[in-house]
Protein: Flavin monoamine oxidase family protein
Amino acid sequence: MKKTIVIVGAGLSGLRAASLLTAQGITCKVLEARDRIGGRVLSTSVPNRPDLGKFDLGPSWFWPQYESTITNLVKDLNVGTFDQYTKGAMLFERFQNEPPERYRHPENSDAISVRFRGGVQSLIDALADTIPSGVVELNTSVTAIRLEKDDAITIETNQADGKRKSFSADAVILALPPRIVARHIHFSPSLPPNLMTNLVNKPTWMAGQAKAVAVYDRPFWRESGLSGFVSSRVGPMQEIHDASSDTGTGALFGFFGVPANSRQELGEDQLLKLVMDQLVRLFGPAAENVNALLYKDWSEDFETAVEEDLDPLTHYPSYGQLPIVGDWEKKIILASTETSSQFGGHLEGALQAAEQAVLVIVNYTR
Structure:
């Protein structure tokens, strides 16, 4: 009997699952609420200056020494990569009114992190090319999943034009953060109470975070022997890295130490003014000559964050697969990076979650 699988979410995990199912000859459909593929992967160019390259406002790296799944996939898809720039000294900013301290890491002291030519979106696009046209439906927000008496599954969605559309499936892969599943989708019959509790208690990786990228003509800090890496107790960015492209354009990106609620109270304009003040403080007057300042606050992204994600993480979350029992066993499969016990929060975790979900489907359909 031919099976049809619906995948909810066209991020890295959802697209990988669709690619693997297609290769197995299993019919699938991917439903994505956004108007783009990629999910928490977001590589963007400077408005009116695509020549400067693309810059990641979501994840940026992977680590080939430890992450074999993504390393092998990148090789199979022939996606271009380059090593993160780390040469030179780092800066440590302890106090507002004192110059940053300069430190030099011993060579080969850290694992090599690798970035993508054209941003992580290049991996997303390469995966999408392995999926038949028409499989992915954008602007399709899943609102309800219903298990029928004949064991079939009905998926109810809202379309961008306001219309509703239903899909049928034999199983559903939920390639979404667990909290989004719990807060955005109504299940009938209801999910077991302990599963709902566990879903809500899984923090969405980087959902409470924001990222800024300052784009320059060239990576001028390298000329002063700096790597671009900064650790700051002053802020607003607590961690800064070189985000320059492999084609010569300079860029610095930073993660914020300012909690989500405080960022929203400040507003984007004031926050980015503080970002520029910090960059000038750290790297000198040359930092003022910025081509563009790109910004993404993931806590304000309805498809990523829920209210619980506004609270800053105080420790690395306990991630891993959540067992599904009862009516929904083998009918729904969770497949976000948060379901990976070893690589939760990483691109590697998203890919491993997709592979595990497809393995369940393949074993079930035999």
In short: The chain has a mean pLDDT of 94.
